[in-house]
Amino acid sequence: VHPNVSQGCQGGCATCSDYNGCLSCKPRLFFVLERIGMKQIGVCLSSCPSGYYGTRYPDINKCAKCKADCDTCFTRNFCTKCKSGFYLYSGKCLEKCPDGLEANNHTMECTSIVHCETSEWSPWSPCMKKGKTCGFKRGNEVRVREIVQHPSARGNPCPATSESRKCIVQRKRCQKEGKGKKNREEKRKKSNKDESKETRQESKGRAARRQNREQRENNNKMQPKKRKAPNKEQDLAPVDTAH
Q1: pLDDT by residue (tens digit) across 91-108?
Q2: Whole-prediction pTM
Q3: Coil, helix or strand at residue 94
Q4: Please, which residues bridge with residue 17 across strands?
């Protein structure tokens, strides 16, 4: 250390010299040596640069170098990111991943091998031929399944997601589209006509019943009231012949 030590330093230094730069740092800052050509200069930083990890001591906080294959590290023996050409696994940088793992070139990590997974088969479709379900005897029916987990680079590939097989149906003629539409329209009109007919019949029945009821009421009003029959016992009372 150069003997010319100054207390009026800049850049976070607590003490410094013209030749060596920072000799100690202000509280909570990390001291690190930066190489400039053949010379090392002390600097004080709020966090350690790439390739270094920080260690706090009672008297000084220092930045120490990571291992040569580490780009960043938590401690010297625990890497958090590897340099190009290495894969991170459990805090270590490896040129080749262990058995049962594969190299992920996107994250530069050793990851578990993922195999393809598919859903269950769907039910077989109706027997068809050229998109139709009639007008033939032999056709094909298919079933499908979906991929629910795509495989990783070394994982088992996905199997086929569709199957087809021959099928036989009872031969029947295809109904013409125009004729079928016409039949459906006629059925609809007939149904509407039947409903209207039933509605008219119900209305006529209600009107007839109402008319009969009114006729009976009028007849009752026009009939004369019956006179009360005389009391025969009073008419046959004995006549007084005492005179």
Answers
A1: 999 999 998 899 998 889
A2: 0.48
A3: strand
A4: 5, 21
